[in-house]
Specification:
The chain has 238 residues and is of the alpha/beta class. It contains eight helices and eleven strands.
């Protein structure tokens, strides 16, 4: 059995990852598939933090584009991430994976408040920690949340789960000639405006030498492949 090359990771999931083949909301089969993969990785002794988006329910940026006040729209998007986090927690715990949900927005009846030392202690005890509510501030994406929390808890890498198998020069779905990158430097991502993570998140990772691996979540087993060092996806570093 291959051994993991990382001890502590942040897995960044989009809200769309939970909607599966549905156009909206939560597909419980998709949740189950993700939970199964996470359980497999956790059994290798890897400490896993999950940061999840809310785009399958409500996306703040698109809401503000339709006339909702931007701050209100962003808070609505944060609440959507809480729903997703609780759904993923349920799927994980049904498979015997102990979890804790921590939120940047105080809601004691649903989840713990985000406390860095408590999150680290949960990881040390073998629990999967799910961060929801973004940073708790408007105008910041869950990509930025993933970068910030990864740095705070001492994660070794951000695993950015997507619908494609890496970073391309342009959208590979629309452009069949798009070129896939095996590796990139942070500065090149910023200069070329590549859709890896938003500029704030990428800059945070660059300033703290935190690598990002972008890979395809839709191929089952890919989370384990990345964590055990298989060369899939695109790595951003240096």
């Amino acid at each position: 059995m291959k051994k993991p090359i990382f001890k502590r990771v942040v897995l960044k999931l989009s809200g769309e990852a939970l909607q599966g083949r549905m156009g909206y909301g939560i597909d419980y089969e998709a949740c189950a598939s993700i939970a199964k993969q996470i359980k497999e990785v956790r059994s290798l002794g890897v400490e896993i933090v999950i940061v999840i988006g809310g785009g399958n329910i409500f996306r703040g940026a698109s809401g503000s584009g339709k006339g909702i006040d931007r701050v209100n729209a962003d808070y609505m998007g944060m609440l959507a991430t809480v729903i997703n986090g609780l759904a993923l927690q349920d799927a994980l715990e049904k498979r015997g994976v102990f979890t804790r949900v921590q939120t940047a927005i105080d809601m004691q009846e649903l989840a713990e408040p985000y406390i860095r030392r408590r999150a680290i202690r949960h990881l040390e005890k073998g629990r999967v920690v799910i961060f929801v509510g973004g940073t708790g501030n408007p105008y910041f994406t869950t990509d930025t949340t993933a970068a910030l929390r990864a740095i705070e808890i001492g994660a070794e890498v951000i695993l950015k789960a997507t619908k494609v198998d890496g970073v391309y020069s342009s959208d590979p779905i629309k452009n069949k000639r798009a070129r896939k990158y095996d590796s990139l430097r942070y500065i090149d991502v910023l200069k070329k405006g590549l859709k890896v993570m938003d500029a704030t998140a990428t800059s945070l990772c660059m300033d703290n030498s935190l690598p990002i691996i972008v890979f395809n979540l839709l191929k089952e087993g890919n989370i384990k492949r990345v964590i055990t060092g298989e060369k899939i996806g695109t790595i951003v570093k240096g």
